[in-house]
Write the structure tokens for this entry.
Amino acid sequence: MSLSVDSSQALSLRMEAYILQLSDIYQRWMAWLTATELLSIDATPETVGQLQERGLSLITELRDALEGREQILDSAQQAGWTATTLRSLAESLPAWKRPRFRAAFDASRQQLAQLRRLHTATWVYLNESANFYNDLTRLISGTVAQHVYMDDRPRECGGHLLDACL
């Protein structure tokens, strides 16, 4: 199959621009996740609102980037390439022979793997923090759930933490 050098170069340039866009989003997403973790320690309504806006903005940018990915794949298909992923498309382009082009793909893959790990760790941390603060609030307010063995005890036996009927 004889594919145009111009279309190959155009696709290579678009893919390089896409990888740069992903790298930029990656850097800002990492900063956002770090700020989200710090927010669990020192939050104000203003900072929560700002962080939420930044998160929504990042999601919008990521959706736009994914749309750009689909456009690249559609353009490749129209130009005669049969790749279904950016990686397979990149490997079929003459630009793949350039070490810098390959390195950009590998760096992007590593960044996304690191982002997935950090995103999961942040979610676990925030979930556990929320559970802790929820339990602490219930303890302070005196609404701690009774132990399962105290369910049939009358209220006058004592508090939720100690059974005064013993």
Notes: The longest helix spans residues 99-141.
